Amino acid sequence: MKKEKAGRDGLATGSDGTVRCFWCVGDALYESYHDREWGHPVRDDVRLFEKICLEGFQAGLSWVTVLRKREAFRRAFHGFDPERVARMNGRDIARLLRDPGIIRHRQKLESAVNNAKRALELIEERGSLAAHLWTFEPDAKERPKRITWPALGKLTESPASRALSKDLRQRGFSFVGPTTMYAMMQAMGLVNDHLDGCPVRERALAARKRFRTPRQAASSRLSSSRRTGPKSSS
């Protein structure tokens, strides 16, 4: 597919006639990821753990390179089930180093196993990975008023991603630098960095309005129990 040139607004039109953020146009898989996943809020722990791992593998590479290998990564890491990944050992790492379908980088492979163990500890402490990660959703005042092409170019990290990176590092996670964590926040909908004028931006905003973070859900249950009072044990 021919790569289209971006306009001054950072948008481009694909061969299907759809306007999108420029960075995905020209690759059908990348366009689908942009349209269906990127920027939409996620609370599923497996998907969140997968994204932390894959963003770590992406370090130094382009995301589309990792995206093309995502299914192979899912097979290699048991669908990114943290419990199964945490049980992987040196023999598994040696096997994966021979797997041509994934990125064969020993430190990153070992990091995924380590991060699975740390994720399980975090889930034990906070109830879910999502419950913790969503506490780092930035306040609106930290965000640009408009997501323009120049503004997006400056958003390689943020105060929230630096705080999240520091927190996870202190918990023993690896390959979770501020830039890596900002990319995770973009992908999982903690921020919406679809450019102004991109049709998916409005869809992602609508999805966020419908979305309830784990702490919001817990707060709602608490408020409900306070209104109704304890149930009779009779």
Topology, please?
Elements: E1 11-13, E2 19-21, H1 28-36, H2 45-58, H3 63-68, H4 70-76, H5 82-86, H6 90-96, H7 106-126, H8 129-133, H9 149-154, H10 159-170, H11 178-187, H12 199-210, H13 214-228
Antiparallel strand pairs: 1-2
Helix pairs in contact: 2-7, 2-11, 10-11
CATH superfamily label of the domain at 41-195: Hypothetical protein, domain 2
Q: Unreliable runs, pLDDT <50, ≥5 residues?
A: 220-234
Structural class: mainly alpha
User: Would you identify the CATH architecture of the domain at 41-195?
Assistant: Orthogonal Bundle
CATH topology name of the domain at 41-195? Endonuclease III, domain 1
The strand line-up of the biggest sheet is 1-2
Let me know the number of strands. Answer: 2
- Work out the helix count: 13
Residue share in helices? 55-70%
- Largest sheet, strands/sense/barrel: 2 strands, antiparallel
Mean pLDDT: 91
- N-to-C CA distance: 69 Å
Helix and strand run = EEHHHHHHHHHHHHH
CATH level 1 class label of the domain at 41-195: Mainly Alpha
Shape annotation: globular
Residue share in β-strands: under 5%
Radius of gyration: 19 Å
Question: What structural keywords apply?
Answer:
disordered C terminus, 234 residues, mainly alpha, Endonuclease III, domain 1
